[in-house]
Design goal:
Translation, Eukaryotic Peptide Chain Release Factor Subunit 1, Chain A, 419 residues, globular, 13 helices, 60s Ribosomal Protein L30, Chain: A, 40% helix, binds zinc ion, alpha+beta, 3 domains, Nucleotidyltransferase, domain 5, 4-stranded antiparallel beta sheet
Length: 419
């Protein structure tokens, strides 16, 4: 798999992983009987199986009969599923297995999950507890690279960071320096000197706050500084920033605004400096769609129904799904004659739909057994449809302006088409 292909897969796979972690986190064993198993990339599976057999032997000594039975059953299920592997896949293999109480019935059911992580997990660990061990998977989702941003002129400064999809403004500072021409005549030179001095004091304050914010970030990847006019160069050239941070300046960018619009402008202009940053990538993806739409290019589609149709025809090149999408795809089925239909509903309308379906008769055989059988998250469902037809599937957060637009103006689903 090439790097480009790897990238294509990550945002959707990460989304799925995030959802899976939520599910696994909600599972609690009655005792120490939930097994988590992390197998590193390429590990010979017969070694793992031998290890599990030992654990199986040890489990035979567990005093509580119910726990003993559950642990042994969980280990057996893992061994039987591992039969199909000789070695762990290139990113490793993670397995969760255990008896989980079924809701409200006081009984337990053996549940099993097998995960091929989207990125390598180099851990070999067998863990038995009343909950699943999820930290290594969560670490994988944690965005590691952070960039620092300073936007300033001589009247105000904003200090911000961008990590993954998240932009955070840490500090807003104002100098109180009056406009250029508020004095004149013979006091002009004295006035200019005072302004100069006040500017110096202001930059010192900006530097102190920037040092405080940025030095506390252990893996800061780079700093970009921008603003209208010459203030930014003065700030960069002067000794206002800690020398360790000065070394991390990757760009000084001329922009038209300060404040939050200035930050947005800077991120857009300096996009190429922010390497692999999801924030700029998401903006770019949605912008591309918007540009095509504005140009009346016919190779776009939006809205769940239209995009679904394009997906089924295999016409989708890039599928954009908003993380803020809260709709479900349900299958209604008649167990008597096999009739089925699919419907899309808002999450909060699911219960109402279930009640309605229970009242309805099957349109084919008239039986009263019609039920909502399958409920799927539309992001996952459409995403899989995209994968099957070779589309690039992108799950877009609502953290950027463009992401908000995707969610609100296009109901969370948009696509760039092949033809
Ligand atoms: Zn029927």
């Amino acid at each position: 798999m090439s790097d480009e292909e790897a990238k294509k897969r990550t945002s959707f796979e990460k989304y799925r992983l995030r959802r899976l972690i939520e599910v696994l986190e909600s599972k609690k064993g009655a005792h120490t009987e939930l097994i988590s198993l992390y197998i590193p990339p390429g590990k010979v599976i017969s070694d793992v199986t031998n290890y599990l057999k030992q654990e199986y032997g040890t489990a035979a000594n567990i005093k509580s009969k119910a726990t003993r039975k559950n642990v042994m059953e969980a280990i057996r299920s893992i061994i039987s599923k591992l039969k199909y592997f000789q070695r762990a896949p290139s990113t490793g293999l993670v397995i969760f297995s255990g008896a989980v109480p079924t809701s409200g019935q006081g009984t337990e059911k053996l549940e099993f999950w097998m995960v091929t992580p989207p990125e390598p997990i180099n851990i070999y660990k067998y863990h038995c507890d009343s909950k699943f061990y999820l930290e290594p998977l969560k670490d994988l989702l944690e965005e590691k690279d952070t960039y620092g941003v300073i936007v300033l002129d001589r009247s105000e400064a904003h200090i911000a960071t961008i990590k993954g999809t998240h932009l955070e403004i840490h500090k807003k500072l104002t100098s109180g320096i009056p406009g250029k021409h508020s004095a004149g005549g013979q006091s002009q030179r004295r006035f200019e000197r005072l302004i100069e001095q006040a500017g110096h004091e202001f930059f010192k304050r900006v530097g102190e706050h920037a040092n405080e914010v940025f030095l506390s970030i252990p893996d800061l990847k780079g700093i970009v500084i921008g603003g209208p006019g010459p203030s930014k160069e003065k700030f960069v050239d002067g000794d206002y920033l800690d020398y360790r941070l000065k070394q991390k300046i990757i760009g000084v960018v001329d922009i038209g605004y300060t404040g939050e619009p200035g930050i947005e402008e800077l991120v857009g202009k300096a996009e190429s400096l922010f390497e692999d940053l999801r924030y700029t990538e998401e903006k770019r993806l949605v912008q591309k769609f918007l540009e095509m739409l504005v140009k009346n290019d016919e190779k776009v589609a939006y809205g769940e129904r239209e995009v679904r149709e394009a997906l089924l025809q295999g016409r989708v090149d890039t599928l954009l799904l908003s993380e803020g999408l809260d709709i479900l795809r349900v299958t209604i089925r008649c167990p008597n004659c096999g009739y089925s239909e699919e419907k899309t509903v808002m999450k909060e309308q699911l219960q109402k739909l279930q009640e309605e379906v229970a009242q309805r008769a099957c349109p084919v055989c008239n039986s009263s057994l019609l039920t909502v059988e399958e409920v799927r998250d539309v992001i996952e469902e459409l995403g899989e449809l995209g994968e099957q037809t070779g589309a690039r599937v992108e799950v877009i957060s609502t953290e950027t302006e463009e992401g908000q637009q995707l969610k609100q103006a296009f109901k969370g689903v948009a696509a760039i088409l092949r033809y």
